[in-house]
Here is the input.
Amino acid sequence: MDVSHILLHSYSRQSPVEFYTDSLIFRPVRSRLSPALGSLRAPSFRWWFLSQVLSASGTMTQGVAQSWLVLRLTGSGLDLGILGSCYMLPVLLGGPWAGALVDRVDRRRLLAVTQVLFILLAGALAVLTFTGAVRVWMLFLLAFVTGAVSAPDGAARQVYVLDLVGGERLASAVSLNEVVINVSRVLGPATGGIFLATLGVPFCFVANAVSYLPPLAVLLTQRRRAGRGAAPIRRAPAGPGAVRAGLRYAWSTPALRYCLLMAAASGMLFNLGVGLPLLATRTFHLGGGGYGLMMATFGVGGVAGALLAASGRGMPSGRSVRLLALLTGISILATAAAPLASMAFAALGITGALSIWFIARANTLAQLRAAPSMRGRVMGIWVMALPGAQPITSPIVGFTAEAAGPRAGFGLAGAALLLAAAAGWRSLADAGVATEPAAGVTAAPDRSRADVAAGRPEAPALQPTR
Here is the structure.
């Protein structure tokens, strides 16, 4: 019996409705989701992904409790801003140094250390609140230390997924990380609200400490398993020039430079706690429920955008990244200019999808375009740009909203993203074919796009120049 007879026999048992439903709906959906979920086929990444859902949700739960505790202690909105700045300042200033550290040490071991530190910091918050000894300056200090740990942790997480899945599945892994972030935006605050209403503030910190145990267990039980075709890790030399070399490399490589600038510009959008509540309350006259629904709408769109980004195969082209940046900027401006709340909700959902699609593809392009010896430093600078630049961009958004209105404040992210995309339009015109060699290195012969997408190492011809 040949294949055609087998297929005919299979479909003959289906009704016409079942046949057309399977052919026109489910089969295309399955074919689209297959590459999107491809990174989950790697067992090491699958366990890491599941643990990150819990860990990110625990972080969001603690964030809700910290803000509530600051307001209970001082009732000052300024103190809330200081709390956020204390966390973000080390991320902004320490990003390049954190990236240099990631290039020098084993990423798995570094992440295991940061998980332990996060557990201790959350435990300290729990003890201080349980005993009633907590003061607002203690919250500021612990937020600063947490930010200092988050700088190397964030850079290491970015590169570690490439160690696990390889370049061919990196787009799927990076995009699924965006799914984790958007799911945690729902689960974390919801858990925090329930704990605040029932068990009290200390249990939010306990929940966060416990949430780091699954990723720690994953890191301790799995040894590094490189994804298919992943390049071997090359440790960068230690020294004071390593950070300067990383900054110089990222700025002198046009594709990386403009991806980083666009990431910093998009931070104005992703810090939804500044521009969106003003747009919801002052422009569309919505209450807390309406603001929460806007946040959820953006999150649902973000999940869709992450799946779209994950469905791409191999290395994204510079052209696709610049186009998505352009569309994201337009959708942000459309949301800000929406005359009706219903239209703003629709535009916000589209903005969520496009922005996450864009940022996931830009992150993938930056990782695969960076030379392996520079990848940690490039990702450290990425974390410095997003979310590290928010202590700079958030006050700008707030000032614009107060001076020119909430629409202008929210739309500022769209204008900044359009300017960054326009500045890098020509530099991102290529198809993303080759990794950019690090400074002081003679480039090997050009590799094919398939080699780059698979994360295959450069040819041995790379030699230091004298």
